[in-house]
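Subgroup meeting minutes
Present: P.N., E.W., G.H.
Scribe: E.W.

1. P.N. recapped why we're keeping a running log of single-chain structure predictions: easier to compare across weeks, and new members can see raw inputs and outputs side by side.
2. G.H. added today's entry (146 aa).
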Amino acid sequence: MQDVIEREITVKAPKERVYNTIADPTKIISWFPDAIEGTFEVGQSVVFNFGEHGKTRVYVEAAKPFEYFAYRWVPGSAGTADTDVLQVPHTLVEFHIAEAADGTKITLKESGFASLPIEVAEASLNENSGGWEYMMGRLAEVLTQA
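Output recorded in log:
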């Protein structure tokens, strides 16, 4: 079972703008969830609201401004807003941000699929693989707008 999804894009935007677009709750909603309920800070559990696709709870794992941001969630789990992410099998979503010759490189890595229950692991991996492709495209679009 494949355990990791990894996507990489390079954008012509400064690292600070990239980080804020990923880690600032007022900016992440421009490309990812429709809304965030709660405090989007390390150690906090918040709810991503995906509108008609439901809500899911995430646990903010780490934040190193302008370089790294990570959270844990249960993939494919829209409707699990009441779930304690840390008490059930989940994956880790990480954003690595680095300067590149032609802009800023963003590497998205979601890991932990092999530890999910077998009945949801493959479907979650397939769904998120395509989902991250789409969402990273949206992130790039937002970051390249003037």
